[in-house]
Amino acid sequence: xxxxxxxxxxxxxxxxxxxxxxxxxxxxxxxxxxxxxxxxxxxxxxxxxxxxxxxxxxxxxxxxxxxxxxxxxxxxxxxxxxxxxxxxxxxxxxxxxxxxxxxxxxxxxxxxxxxxxxxxxxxxxxxxxxxxxxxxxxxxxxxxxxxxxxxxxxxxxxxxxxxxxxxxxxxxxxxxxxxxxxxxxxxxxxxxxxxxxxxxxxxxxxxxxxxxxxxxxxxxxxxxxxxxxxxxxxxxxxxxxxxxxxxxxxxxxxxxxxxxxxxxxxxxxxxxxxxxxxxxxxxxxxxxxxxxxxxxxxxxxxxxxxxxxxxxxxxxxx
Length: 318
Hints:
Layout: E1 2-3, E2 9-13, E3 18-24, E4 29-36, E5 44-48, E6 51-55, E7 60-63, H1 66-69, E8 77-80, E9 95-96, E10 102-106, E11 121-125, E12 133-137, E13 145-147, E14 154-158, E15 170-176, E16 181-182, E17 188-189, E18 193-194, E19 212-216, E20 220-225, E21 239-243, E22 256-263, E23 266-274, E24 278-279, E25 284-285, E26 289-294, E27 300-304, E28 309-313
Parallel strand pairs: 12-16
Antiparallel strand pairs: 1-2, 2-3, 3-4, 5-6, 6-7, 7-8, 9-10, 10-11, 11-12, 13-14, 14-15, 15-19, 17-18, 20-21, 21-22, 22-23, 24-25, 26-27, 27-28
């Protein structure tokens, strides 16, 4: 999800291959406009300078003056088309950083493997598609990142590898205060778990450990720092993280929205914010959170690709 400068909400659908614009009154949708169909897993949307940017697996498109053009979508302009074409972890969450560059992750094309750049990294490029470079390495599959409102430093989620057991390795919340850091994949997971296949090549001590370890296989996806004024003051600058939920544990985990309080570059508190998507009694889920978006009024939107819905979480003072 991405919020337009004039209030339209832009939503991508990875599996359906479509991108939509939603006109709303702040509480409910009033109109839905289809911007694009038949794209290759268009997971990422971002808005900058009045333009909508949409990421497919191997390329990025730009729709100029998007909100001024609606309800008719403008023709897309190709920004960049040199990303790998692998579909395994190939979908891309995108956001513009405070430096004005577009940040685009490139997932590992496997459960665990060692591949050349730009695989298993976060890259960035200028809005015109030039000067693409790798910002962070050792990142298996991030599907959410944001910059701390005060420090402007990058934080991102990462999904741990599979097939090491129910409880290993953890998913991660990582902190990248500068470019060039390596976060361990495929050699080390969670900061201290050597990979059984690649761990002999390099030691865990060589890499940056996670700022926060999440549950194993919870599939931590979208994240945002809270910048609104609706919630109580203690929520300011806390991070909300969507846990999509496990697919390969003997007992399901995740399926909720977490929060992480960050102070001085460290996570000082980590707790559940919204749950109930998973019925633990019969181990079934009716919803799977994907992304979070802070709205102008301070409410928090949560997207769900299982129930095909977007929820609004608001705070009401008693």
